[in-house]
Amino acid sequence: MGTQAPADHAYDRQRSVEEKLEKQKAIDEWLPITSSRNAKWWYSTFHNVTAMVGAGVLGLPYAMAELGWGPGVAVMVLSWIITLYTLWQMVEMHEMVPGRRFDRYHELGQYAFGEKLGLYIVVPQQLLVEVGVNILYMVTGGQSLQKFKTTVCPSCTPIKTTYFIMIFASVHFVLSHLPNFNSIAGVSLAAAVMSLTYSTIAWTASLHKGVQPDVQYGYKANSTAGTVFNFLAALGDVAFAYAGHNVVLEIQATIPSTPEKPSKGPMWKGVIVAYIIVALCYFPVALIGYWMFGNSVEGNILISLEKPAWLIAMANMFVVIHVIGSYQIYAMPVFDMIETALVKKLHFKPTRTLRFVTRNIYVAFTMFIGMTFPFFSGLLSFFGGFAFAPTTYFLPCIMWLAIYKPRRYSLSWWTNWFCIVVGVLLMVLAPIGGLRLIIMQAKTYSFYS
Question: Which of 61, 157, 313, 353 is 20 to 30 A from 421, alpha carbon to alpha carbon?
């Protein structure tokens, strides 16, 4: 009898551990990020294009006008190179520990900085980026719908932007219930195609219109202070344009992986194709748009074009379709965080009802904030510098230094520190310009107009 009790106790303990693991596995199979791991390499291409090429591309000629030819081209090229490098780091770090995958940005942060500190460093920034983008896309979607309507029917009764934001949000009250990344692959593919299409419309229509008479390439602001503030705001616009890193690990988590065939191979293949598409979208729009219109270019290049009306209306509708996909790509990690907290920490049952309620509340929240504060261009610069610079330009480098510890003064060490310095400068300087823009726009703004 004496030996029976310990044996029973060991058996019970073993069973308890197995039950916990089984429960954990069931939860992971329910959560959006880890539920489906059968994505193909090209999924990573269009998810990354959809995440990165936002409506910000249409503001790049305006950013060029505020930066000027030399600094503008330098900032655009440098950002493309730095963000491709930091994205490569993220892809490499996804499976650097044998037998383990860092499926979420904050999991990698916890490994690099420690359980608690990693959460405190990464989660607030990631949430700020993802929720910020979702709010911005609510505004962009609503404004593009409004532009489509006014272009198609200039004599129709004007409708408030608020209502167009609500129309745009209605789509997300439906799409947000798709369970995971792979289930939104079709939406994401349509969005990626649209981004390439409206970017092409923007630069070809600009080229067709030709260099405008009395075009000027100098700085537009009358004072030195104005020029400096506009320059800083433009840096934020460029930072915003290259911000897809917040969802990279979550996208890679959907790709199957084995020790012989790790996920980084197909993921990197997809990223390279995505970055070529990004370059094809960004550089022609920014350079040709600025070349044709000079410093008189509008914050949205489509407004400067005006005609032909049917083409501009079509481009605005493409923007709407693209932003629908982008919203979903950025919302999925937020849904994952909310659902993880509710199921793992607060012990809610993983049910459809829970998913239905939480996701609807989130969509309603982003819609409400977007309707209340649609200072689009100012918000772009502010979020671009304040939130995107850390997660895109230098946080991956800090993690790389913390984990791999490259030899001091080696090429890897210098490269990472260069990216960190550039990123920190962006984070400090860009929000200053963005905040000034918000204050100036807020002076003449009336709520829910």
Answer: 61
The candidate with the shortest Cα–Cα distance to 241, out of 199, 269, 197, is: 199
Eight-state DSSP code of residue 35: S
Query: Tokens 């480098």 map to which residue?
Result: 397
Q: What is the pLDDT of residues 274-320, one digit of tens each?
A: 999 999 989 999 999 889 888 888 777 877 777 788 888 888 899 89
Nearest alpha carbon to residue 288 among 200, 358, 176, 351 = 200
State the amino acid at position 226 in one-letter form: G
pTM beyond cutoff 0.90? no
DSSP state of 354: H
The Cα 95–Cα 128 span in angstroms is 26
Place of tokens 């911005």: 136
* d(C-alpha 181, C-alpha 89), whole Å: 22
- Given a contact cutoff of 8 angstroms between Cβ atoms, the answer to whether 140 and 55 are in contact is yes
Q: Which of 393, 54, 374 is nearest to 239 (CA)?
A: 393
Residue 331, C-beta contacts closer than 8 angstroms, at least 6 positions apart: 130, 134, 172, 176, 359, 362, 363
Residue 422 to residue 8: CA distance in whole angstroms: 61
Tokens linked to 79: 């950002």
CB 126 within 8 A of CB 391: yes
Retrieve residue 350's tokens.
């993983």
Residue type, 163: Y
Tokens for 218, please give them. 């100098």
Quote the distance between the C-alpha of residue 87 and its chain's center. Answer: 13
Q: What does the alpha-carbon distance between residue 162 and residue 352 come to, in Å, rounded to a whole number?
A: 30
- Taking only the tens place, the pLDDT of each residue in 18-61 is 776 777 777 877 888 877 778 888 888 988 888 888 767 888 89
